[in-house]
Design a protein that fits this description.
single chain; mainly beta; Methylamine Dehydrogenase, Chain H; six-stranded mixed sheet; 35 strands; 0% helix; 45% strand; globular
């Protein structure tokens, strides 16, 4: 019998602790493997369809220092995650014991991606690093002109990432050699998504773009009304982008969720209101799930809308701002909140399945992994929160 593991850190300005969560239910064997990058795959689906999660409890914790902005990757019995002190840590998924650490000269808020024995991640020092997954030794690095907050996507032989210098770059996975670079745009915080032969992303100027994965040439561009701070999600023939308003306290009305035709860039639909969406949306066959924030300390609501007509199916208010990008684990949504709880919400009704206190505030996003002992596990971070943060902190998506 197998199990799932959920890894999830949170973020704050004090000592960090990792906590492993264990679900009550046992699971049958499933066709689901590791969680190798932010939201599992290059399309940023965030979905583990055959898993079920009915409850969570803390199983272990481990101090790694600083604060955690990056969301973890879980591959081959190891958890990989960065911290504000500039280090990427590898921990045992079984008990949280340290395996190795790689130090950079800037905060690691980029979520790592693991492929072909390499762990790839960005740093605020302006570099993207590839280190060996087994021992943490440097394989290669690539320097940009700005902090790299964006989480890399791995597609075939390429690693694609954005920089706050406004450039999207693709490097060869094996060597770090630059394959192509796009020079248009403003700072890129959100992780790129891969849709077939296209790379999709948004920037701080609200521009939504599709580039050729082969050579970086521009395929289409669409101007949004806010700032893109999260990754788009790719569905069947469409991609959905979330937008953050220009004002945190009094956001203006804008198209806060925009769906586009992947092939052409044509806007298919948009939801319009004085909302900000700070996290990546989720898609299944019938619905889109997302979280709206109405001002810095105002109402935060998780919503599900039908794709056919964009009618609200359900909504659920939670106790704080959410910039954690949810994962869909079987029939439940899993996400963190600034009220310090990890929420499990029923995807069909929005009912609270479980609400586990883990930290003063939780920021980054869940990762799930099948575990051989047959129990469902999760790993969020918790710590004391002391310093008030801005409405949208820099990249954990």
């Amino acid at each position: 019998m197998h199990s799932w593991e959920i890894s999830r850190p949170c973020r704050a300005r004090s000592t960090i602790a990792w906590a492993l969560l264990t679900a009550a239910a046992l699971l049958a064997p499933m066709a689901w493997g590791d969680w190798p990058m932010f939201r599992h795959d290059p399309g940023r689906s965030g979905v583990a369809p055959e898993a079920e999660l009915s409850g969570v409890e803390v199983a272990w914790s481990a101090e790694i220092g600083g604060s955690v902005d990056s969301s973890p990757a879980v591959v081959g019995g190891a958890v990989y995650v960065g911290n504000s002190l500039g280090s990427l840590h590898a921990l045992s998924a079984a008990d949280g014991s340290p395996l190795w650490r790689y130090d950079t000269r800037g905060a690691v808020v980029s979520s790592p991606a693991v492929a072909d024995g390499l762990v790839l991640f960005g740093s605020a020092d302006g570099f993207v690093y590839a280190v060996r997954a087994d021992d943490g030794r440097l394989a290669w690095s690539y320097r940009t002109r700005g902090p790299v907050l964006s989480s890399p996507a791995v597609a075939g032989e390429l690693v694609v990432f954005g920089s706050m210098d406004g450039r999207l770059c693709a490097c060869r996975l094996a060597t770090g050699e630059l394959a192509w670079r796009s020079d248009q745009g403003e700072g890129i915080q959100g992780a790129p998504a891969i849709a077939g032969d296209l790379v999709l992303y948004g920037d701080d100027a609200g521009r939504l773009r599709a580039l050729s994965l082969a050579d970086g040439s521009l395929r289409w561009e669409l101007q949004g009304g806010g700032k893109v701070v999260a990754a788009p999600v790719v569905g069947e023939g469409l991609a959905v982008f979330s937008m953050m308003g220009s004002s945190a306290l009094r956001p203006p009305k804008l198209d806060f969720l925009v769906a586009v035709d992947v092939a052409t860039g044509e806007q298919l639909w948009a939801l319009h209101e004085a909302y900000s969406v700070l996290s990546s949306p989720l898609l299944d066959d019938e619905r889109c799930y997302f979280v709206t924030v109405e001002g810095y300390v105002s109402k935060t609501v998780v919503r599900a809308v039908r794709l056919s007509d964009r009618e609200v199916v359900w909504e659920r208010q939670v106790g704080g701002v959410v910039d954690s990008s949810a994962a869909l684990l079987g029939g439940n949504l899993c996400l963190g909140c600034h009220d310090g709880h990890l929420y499990l919400l029923a995807a069909d009704t929005g009912a609270v399945v479980d609400r586990e206190p883990l930290a003063t505030k939780i920021y980054s996003s869940p990762a799930f992994h099948r575990h051989s002992r047959g129990r469902l596990r999760g790993r969020p971070c918790r710590r004391t929160y002391r310093k008030r943060r801005s409405h949208r902190s820099s990249k954990c998506r």
